[in-house]
Every structure is written in C-alpha cells, then in structure tokens.
Task: inverse folding
C-alpha cells in the first residue's frame, strides 16, 4: 500500500485526525457508523501526507503523491466484504448519448470513457499508476484500504445487475463496477 511507504509520523498524524473527525461525527449524524465528509478526507490526506491536492479538478484522482495518482473515497463498509464495486464517473456531458443504448452497450461506452479519462489523468498529472485510497466506516471503526484503479477490460465486460435505482452493476473479471 502507498500509505505504508510514507513517513510513519505523517501517517500517524493523518490517522489521528481521521479519528478526531470520527469522534465528532455524532454532531452530523445519528448513525453508529462514523460520518466523515469526503472533502475533509481529501484535505486531511493531502495536508498530513504532503500530497498535491487536485480534488477540485475534473479528473479521476483527488491527490498526487510522487508518480501515484490517488482517488480518495469514503463509504460505509456494508459492501466491502463483498468486493465493493468501483464507482464510474457520471459523464454528464456525454449522458444524452446513453439513453437509447442497451445495458451492454451502455456499459461498454462508459467503460471506454472511463479508460480514456484514466489515461488523460495519467498524462495530465504525470503519474504512472492510479489507486483508490478507501476509508471505510463501520459501527465503531474505520478501516483504510487501497485498491488499484485499473482500466476496465472492455473485452471481458459482463452485466451483473441492472435497473435497481437506475444503476448497472458489471464486471470485467478483475473488478466490479457500478454506474
């Protein structure tokens, strides 16, 4: 994991501040699962770990640490044990072209758009690899994990589920995705 390669004192400061944020979460939520605002996690990651903050840019990453682009995500842990699906950007400016597509064609189209966005991000920010830094929350605990942000293998796409809440769940054999 990238975080394991960073200076220990910086990582300790980061995790300490995440714990502080969790301790304040009852001010914002009645849930037993700590609430952490995503902008806070992005800013803490960058401030504490010395990363370049690119979270306001319209790209696939929120931070840059050397040659690694980092997408910082926070979510409730309910699905992480079941291989939490990676989210796909909404591609709002292209969405009008999606309406007439079948589920299979839609998934292929957004996968191609995502792959292009990942390549653009790598070129634009001069990074050679992309990861997700995930802060998952469960009752009384927070866990940090990291996953590769790989391109989708468009030749192996298979729709797993569609229609529920206007989302499509699919896989390429390596990861599960939600659009």
Result:
């Amino acid at each position: 994991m990238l975080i394991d390669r960073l200076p220990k004192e910086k990582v300790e400061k980061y995790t300490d501040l995440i714990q502080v944020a969790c301790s304040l979460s009852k001010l914002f939520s009645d849930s037993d699962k700590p609430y952490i605002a995503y902008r806070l996690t992005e800013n803490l990651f960058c401030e504490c770990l010395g990363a370049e903050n690119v979270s306001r840019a319209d790209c696939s990453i929120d931070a840059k640490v050397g040659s690694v682009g980092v997408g910082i995500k926070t979510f409730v842990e309910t699905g992480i044990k079941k291989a939490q699906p990676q989210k796909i950007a909404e591609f709002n400016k292209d969405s009008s072209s999606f309406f007439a597509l079948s589920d299979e064609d839609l998934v292929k189209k957004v996968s191609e758009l995502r792959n292009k966005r990942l390549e653009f991000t790598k070129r634009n920010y001069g990074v050679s690899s992309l990861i997700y830094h995930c802060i998952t929350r469960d009752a009384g605990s927070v866990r940090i994990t990291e996953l590769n942000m790989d391109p989708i293998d468009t030749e192996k796409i298979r729709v797993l589920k569609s229609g529920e809440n206007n989302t499509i769940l699919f896989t390429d054999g390596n990861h599960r995705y939600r659009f």
Observations:
- The radius of gyration is 17 Å.
